[in-house]
Amino acid sequence: MELDFLWEMAMEYGYLSMFLVNWLLLFGLPIPNEFAAAFSGVVTETSDFKPLPAFLSAYSGLVTSNLFAYGLGWLFGNRLIEWLQSTFLQSGIERFRQFLAHKGNWAIAFSFFLPGVRWAMPYVVGADRFPLGRYLLYALPAGFIWTVAYFTLGRSFPYAYEAILGHLQWFLIALSSIAVIGLMVYLAIVRKGGKGGQV
Fold it and tell me: Which residues span the membrane (predicted)?
């Protein structure tokens, strides 16, 4: 069902479908995020879609849907969080709040690689009035690395990605670990560069 639905969207709406699927996921489309991100890579290998526009469509969909959720959290605050805790996001919200208390700003970046926590994160961060600039500093690179990882998986294994995502949890954990390490290196370089520029 998931594969058929994504193919139909891709054939009907082209690159726009890769953007829209992230918004549909935000509103409860029952497809794993990793599956949808990898599919954007698959279509570049199995049809006429070009890699760069497909990737940019998928990434911009992820970023804008997360910013929308952040904005909802900012606008409605704890009332929204209380309501969301009565939905399927309850455990994700609780886990992310604990993670945020323990890891601080880094929790925003790491949450992209933790299923269940990823979708709760922007609502909580927005409701907590986390500064937008700081949110973007951690969310944009993490979202980029996450999208690159799964997009590349789809391009590399266009006929096997469904089995990889469905049966090899350890592969996903390893892939996410590599992505987190890459993100940490990136943020360390950015931070060091910022300090080096001070007089």
Answer: 20-43, 55-76, 106-126, 135-153, 168-189
Domain-wise residue ranges, the chain:
2-196
Half-sphere exposure (Cβ direction) of 81: Cα atoms closer than 13 Å: 22
Question: Mind listing the pLDDT tens digit for each residue in 151-197?
Answer: 998 888 767 666 666 655 566 666 667 777 777 788 888 888 765 54
pLDDT by residue (tens digit) across 120-148? 888 889 998 999 999 999 999 999 999 99
Query: At residue 48, what is the residue type?
Result: D
- Report the distance separating Cα 16 and Cα 25, nearest Å: 15
Q: End-to-end CA distance of the chain, in Å?
A: 58
Q: What per-residue string of b and e applies to 52-78 under the rule 16 or more CB within 10 Å gives b?
A: eebbbbbbebbbebbbebbebbbebee
